[in-house]
What we know:
Layout: E1 5-12, E2 17-19, H1 20-32, E3 36-49, E4 52-66, E5 72-74, E6 78-88, E7 94-104, H2 113-117, H3 120-139, H4 142-146, E8 149-156, E9 163-164, H5 165-173, E10 184-195, E11 198-211, E12 215-229, E13 235-244, E14 248-249
Parallel strand pairs: 1-7, 8-13
Antiparallel strand pairs: 1-2, 3-4, 4-5, 4-6, 6-7, 8-9, 10-11, 11-12, 12-13, 12-14
Amino acid sequence: MLSTWDPDAVESFPTRSRGFGEIRTFYQRYVASDRRTQQSVDFQKTAVSGDLAYSEAIWTAIDFARDSAGIEHQGPPRFSRSLEVWRRQSDGGWRIIRSLAFPLVQNPQSVGPSQRVDTLGAEQQIRNSLAAWLSAYDRQDYVAMSKVWAPDILGWYPELPPFTIDEVRRGLSRQRAQDPTRAHIDLTIDEVLVQGDMAVVRDIWYYTRRFGTDSTIKRRMWGYEVWRKQPDGAWRISRYLSAPEKWVRIQ
């Protein structure tokens, strides 16, 4: 189990994160215990770009425990959704460098259309927030852009330090000149899943940069965000993972 994790791995849950050392300790304790958990995984989507890849999956876990008489009992199934970012290793294998997981109240495949109606208001607010962020980005209005982030924001982008609320504050304090080569962004939202005060968004960001009339480059970035409903009723991004493809020259 541990062999699937990169030494630089970070595994994140809605309320906490843990690095490779804690992941290793968790598995060591599990193997040493008398617990038994049966897990199955249904991969929803995978994508590869260069030495990075990401996978989206739904997990089903069933715990087994023995009572004082030594009789094993089966617990109810537990469901979770996860996104993993994988990195190709020097030996050609792939290991997880970032993982984002959150529990589901029930199997998402069993959710009927009547339950979706209760989530439409939250989904629309999230879609509106992303549209407002794009508009603010085009205006270079960093104050408006910052409104999308929750106070506990933690984001990952390849080869950059984790993105936190401190980075948001530093960005607001910077003086920026207008940049004519700044990328234009288009966004496609593939999926919004809402459960209680948590939502997960899967989207694709399309970046275009033009350098005068001589050159234009584009790239696509796969995004995955966990949104949390805040005390003021607004939905904001609490966690995100970004998996960008390489820039491609089109002109």
